[in-house]
């Protein structure tokens, strides 16, 4: 089942309830900072398990204690409910 791209207004309403997330270059974006690399990598491992269960994978990077996550649904050509759902679960970690 393919996801549908959400309207800009729907996305803005939804991210108002997602602490720290913003729209950057058409994607949901958030930067995370941890005490050290091990904690950052542990967080990424937890996100990887969530993403695999959802079959929806982030665009992300890690440099030492920083993790940057961008969420978009490629087959919808934009942000979908899948991205909002994953962002919410990431915040709950």
TrEMBL record:
CDD domains: PCD_DCoH_subfamily_b. Its EC number is 4.2.1.96. The keyword Coiled coil does not apply. It is an enzyme of class 4 (lyase). It catalyses: (4aS,6R)-4a-hydroxy-L-erythro-5,6,7,8-tetrahydrobiopterin = (6R)-L-erythro-6,7-dihydrobiopterin + H2O. It comes from the Bacteria. GO terms for biological process: tetrahydrobiopterin biosynthetic process. The keyword Lyase applies. Keywords: Lyase. GO terms for molecular function: 4-alpha-hydroxytetrahydrobiopterin dehydratase activity. It holds the Pfam family Pterin_4a. Belongs to the pterin-4-alpha-carbinolamine dehydratase family. This is Putative pterin-4-alpha-carbinolamine dehydratase. It comes from Lusitaniella coriacea LEGE 07157.
């Amino acid at each position: 089942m393919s996801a549908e791209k959400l309207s800009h207004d729907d996305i803005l309403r939804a991210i108002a309830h997602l602490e720290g997330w913003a729209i950057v270059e058409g994607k949901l974006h958030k930067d995370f900072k941890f005490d050290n690399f091990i904690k950052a990598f542990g967080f990424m491992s937890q996100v990887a398990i969530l993403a695999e269960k959802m079959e929806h994978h982030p665009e992300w990077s890690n440099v030492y204690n920083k993790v940057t996550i961008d969420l978009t649904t490629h087959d919808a050509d934009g942000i979908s409910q899948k991205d909002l759902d994953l962002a919410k679960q990431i915040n709950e970690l």
